[in-house]
């Protein structure tokens, strides 16, 4: 019996190319599919903002566009002259802000919630920041003024300037 | 069995993005579909590539409704486009030389990145254009070798090419021109037969038909949208270019026939020599030039160049040499003449200031045309292996070459000059809400070409977008583009809504995508800090991997509301 199994010249080569090529590309396909990004996401937006009678009125909409139930904190911050938001690929950092209120909000899969926020005018305040974060136990105190560090993947936030 | 395996590879690779993202892959498709949606709404819109792709999509949309249309676009059309590799495979089956195994051609067509990407992975008019381009080549080959009547289906598929995609039609015009010139020279020099004369008349008629049908498509495109029109305009606007074109027309057949004759007589071409030459010309030279002139492009160059230059090119050149050696001059001209003119074309486009970026489309057509030669080269290479060990070793290496070709099908942004082709659901929502806000605040929208395509899609092309996707040469004077180029943020105009995505940011290896003819760059940290901290720039929405910003939107809105009430 010849080394090529009687299949002619290049028969063994052809077998190797196809079997190995197919297996490698199959593994590559499986790898690509396994590293598929999550399709779900959180969205947070300002629907309306009004400033009258010494009061700010903010209407927000928070939606859970994923297939899992989410529980997180809604944090209302007031920013002063030196307030600053910085971010990198892993974290948000809010400095120069004061926490005005804090509440827990649960969202079912696909659910959206309209949120009405009212707050009295503060002559020193420059901006209002509203954050929804899935892991924020460390700052769960009204009146907190220190820097707030939040995981980027868990956080959505919006802001409007006042004054 | 091998054929099934190769075709399964083709299907697997082309279905990756659809399954992975659950959305149509590539941002261009959203721009194209936006035109279909306008047609569906009864509106008028330019069809820059040719009408066929758009009307086929419109037919599906009308027949099945929007939801099923999107599912077909995402999951079925990539499967259908996979079959578009078959014409090139059938060309390979026409080879009458010994040792040819067309299944290798199918394997190349299945795995080669440019084809995976543009025939199936990304559903675009070019894919349809390539199908008819391939069919025209197949029918012409049959006409030249089997019987002249095959030129009639070639004419029909040529017409369909012109109706499908401008650059495919341009490439086909070059293909027929090269055949006409070379076979005319061959007719005058070697074979004065009436059958060849009849073929020459038919090929010339096909060229005229293609030119006429391409010109008729121009009226459907905007001023700057049809690249074939632009290239011809550019060529005729510069009379100095007519001289090299005329010289090329005269020299091409002489050089082509001369090369074919030389290859036939010269016996010292071996695969090892071919491989070494390709290594020097296609790997070492571009890498050195990139390091010297554009070091930032090195990852992209390496990512694409190495697989193509080691896995595809040496076998193509080897196949071409062997085909020239083993077949008649008449048959050899069929491949050699178009390849010569494609090289001239590439040099010509590179020499055109402002148009040289179009060179990025040409490799796809050349790859598709030369895949039968690559398959034949691999067949000849395998026949030359003398023992089992060599077959085993070579088989393993070639299998890894195939993997490396497949690897590059859907490059990550760091290997694609910062461009992220996939779109996420959150970005779709961001674009949709940006359009909502722009209507509410009566503002324009500033975003890059990638999200601009999505914006056109969600707004049925009604959004007022700062930046013009289809104008290749008009400057796109947008805040995002300008800041991405200079790196220095400046005050945002008060009637512009900025749509920012992580895919534009330097920190994520992205860039503000602009048309390839225009400058752009990544958006740096300074620009993001500016948007987050500049007084009066509101962050209206956050979708986790993108956000909307606008200068004092509510003050403006409340003021105009108050004015309306006052007027009332």
Q: How would you sum up this structure, described in words?
A:
The complex is a heterodimer of chains A (163) and B (568). Chain A has 163 residues and is mostly beta strands. Chain A folds into two domains: 36 residues; 120 residues, Immunoglobulin-like (Sandwich). Chain A is 15% helix and 51% strand. In chain A, strands 7-4-3-6-8 form a five-stranded antiparallel β-sheet, with no helix packed on it. Chain B has 568 residues and is mainly alpha-helical. Chain B has two domains: 414 residues, no CATH class; 143 residues, no CATH class. A five-stranded mixed β-sheet of chain B has the order 2-1-3-5-4, with helices on both faces. In chain B, β4 and β5 form a beta hairpin. In chain B, α15 runs antiparallel to α16 and α19 crosses α20. The mean pLDDT of chain B is 89. β1 of chain A pairs antiparallel with β4 of chain B.
Query: What percentage of residues of chain A falls in helices of 4 or more residues?
Result: 10-25%
Q: What's the story with the biggest beta sheet of chain A?
A: 5 strands, antiparallel
Strand order in space, largest sheet of chain B? 2-1-3-5-4
Number of helices of chain A: 1
How many beta-strand segments of chain B?
Answer: 5
Shape of chain A: elongated
Give a short account of the largest sheet of chain B. Answer: 5 strands, mixed
Secondary structure: number of strands of chain A: 8
Mean pLDDT, all residues of chain B: 89
Record keyword descriptors for this entry.
A: 163 residues; Immunoglobulin-like; three-stranded antiparallel sheet; B: 568 residues; 2 domains; 68% helix; 4% strand; globular
Chart the SSEs and their pairings.
The complex is a heterodimer of chains A (163) and B (568).
Chain A: H1 11-34, E1 42-52, E2 55-64, E3 70-87, E4 91-107, E5 112-120, E6 127-133, E7 148-151, E8 155-161
Antiparallel strand pairs in A: 1-2, 2-5, 3-4, 3-6, 4-7, 6-8
Chain B: H1 2-21, H2 28-40, H3 51-64, H4 66-82, H5 86-93, H6 102-111, H7 113-121, H8 125-145, H9 151-164, H10 166-189, H11 194-218, H12 227-237, H13 239-265, H14 271-293, H15 298-326, H16 329-351, H17 362-383, H18 388-407, H19 425-440, E1 444-446, H20 449-458, E2 465-466, H21 479-486, E3 496-501, H22 525-533, E4 537-542, E5 546-551, H23 553-567
Parallel strand pairs in B: 1-2, 1-3
Antiparallel strand pairs in B: 3-5, 4-5
Helix pairs in contact in B: 1-4, 1-6, 1-7, 2-3, 2-20, 3-4, 4-7, 5-6, 5-8, 5-17, 6-17, 6-18, 8-9, 8-10, 9-10, 9-11, 10-11, 10-13, 10-16, 13-15, 13-16, 14-15, 15-16, 15-17, 15-18, 16-17, 19-20
């Amino acid at each position: 019996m010849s080394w090529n199994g009687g299949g002619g010249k290049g028969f063994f080569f052809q077998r190797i190319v196809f079997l190995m090529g197919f297996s490698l590309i199959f593994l590559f396909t499986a790898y690509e599919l396994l590293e598929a990004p999550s399709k779900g996401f959180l969205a947070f937006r300002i629907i309306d903002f009004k400033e009258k009678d010494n009061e700010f009125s903010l209407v927000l909409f928070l939606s859970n566009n994923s297939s899992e139930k989410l529980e997180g904190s809604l944090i209302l911050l007031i920013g002063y002259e030196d307030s600053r938001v910085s971010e990198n690929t892993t974290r948000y950092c809010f400095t120069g802000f004061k926490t005005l209120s804090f509440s827990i909000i649960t969202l079912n899969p696909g659910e959206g919630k309209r949120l009405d926020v009212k707050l009295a005018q503060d002559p020193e305040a420059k901006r209002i920041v509203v954050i929804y974060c899935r892991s924020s136990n460390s700052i769960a105190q009204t009146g907190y003024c220190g820097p707030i560090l939040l995981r980027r993947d868990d956080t959505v936030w919006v802001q409007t300037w006042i004054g | 069995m091998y054929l099934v395996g190769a075709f399964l590879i083709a299907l697997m690779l082309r279905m990756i993005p659809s399954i992975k993202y659950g959305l149509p892959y590539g941002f261009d498709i959203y721009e194209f579909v936006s035109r279909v949606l306008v047609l569906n709404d009864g509106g008028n819109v330019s069809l820059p590539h040719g009408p066929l792709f758009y009307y086929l999509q419109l037919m599906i949309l009308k027949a099945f409704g929007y939801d099923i249309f999107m599912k077909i676009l995402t999951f079925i059309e990539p499967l259908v486009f996979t079959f578009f590799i078959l014409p090139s495979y059938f060309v390979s089956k026409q080879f009458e030389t010994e040792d040819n195994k067309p299944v290798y051609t199918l394997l190349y067509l299945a795995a080669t990145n440019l084809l995976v990407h543009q025939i199936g992975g990304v559903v675009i008019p070019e894919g349809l254009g390539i199908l008819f381009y391939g069919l025209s080549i197949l029918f012409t080959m049959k006409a030249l070798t089997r019987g002249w009547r095959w030129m009639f289906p070639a004419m029909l598929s040529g017409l369909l090419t012109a109706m499908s995609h401008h650059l495919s039609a341009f490439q086909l015009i070059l293909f027929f021109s090269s055949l006409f010139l070379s076979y005319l020279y061959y007719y005058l020099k070697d074979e004065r037969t009436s059958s060849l004369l009849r073929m020459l008349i038919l090929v010339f008629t096909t060229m005229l038909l293609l030119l006429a049908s391409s010109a008729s498509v121009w009226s459907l495109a905007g001023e700057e949208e049809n690249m074939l029109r632009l290239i011809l305009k550019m060529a005729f606007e510069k009379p100095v270019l007519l001289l090299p074109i005329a010289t090329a027309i005269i020299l091409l057949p002489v050089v082509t026939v001369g090369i074919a004759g030389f290859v036939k007589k010269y016996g010292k071409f071996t695969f090892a020599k071919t491989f070494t030459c390709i290594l020097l010309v296609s790997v070492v030279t571009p890498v050195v030039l990139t390091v010297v002139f554009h070091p930032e492009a090195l990852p992209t160059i390496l990512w694409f160049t190495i697989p193509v230059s080691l896995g595809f090119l040496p076998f193509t050149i080897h196949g071409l040499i062997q085909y020239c050696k083993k077949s008649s001059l008449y048959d050899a001209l069929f491949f050699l003449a178009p390849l010569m003119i494609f090289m001239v074309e590439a040099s010509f486009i590179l020499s055109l200031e402002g148009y040289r970026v179009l060179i990025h489309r040409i490799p796809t057509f050349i790859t598709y045309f030369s895949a039968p030669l690559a398959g034949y080269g691999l067949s000849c290479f395998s026949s030359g292996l003398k023992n089992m060990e060599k077959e085993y070793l070579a088989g393993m290496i070639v299998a890894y070459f195939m993997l490396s070709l497949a690897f590059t099908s859907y490059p990550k942004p760091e290997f694609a000059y910062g461009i992220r082709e996939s779109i996420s659901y959150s970005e779709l929502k961001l674009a949709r809400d940006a359009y909502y806000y722009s209507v509410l605040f009566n503002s324009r929208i500033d975003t890059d070409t990638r999200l601009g395509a999505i914006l056109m899609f969600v707004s049925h092309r009604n959004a007022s977008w700062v930046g013009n996707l289809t104008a290749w040469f008009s400057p796109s004077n947008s805040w995002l583009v300008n800041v991405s180029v200079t790196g220095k943020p400046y005050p945002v105009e008060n009637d512009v809504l900025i749509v920012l995505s992580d895919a534009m940011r330097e920190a994520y290896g992205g860039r503000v995508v602009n048309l390839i003819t225009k400058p752009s760059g990544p958006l740096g940290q300074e620009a993001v800090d500016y948007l987050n901290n500049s007084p009066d720039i509101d962050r209206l929405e956050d979708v986790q991997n993108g956000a909307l910003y606008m200068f004092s939107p509510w003050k403006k809105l409340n003021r105009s509301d108050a004015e309306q009430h006052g007027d009332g």
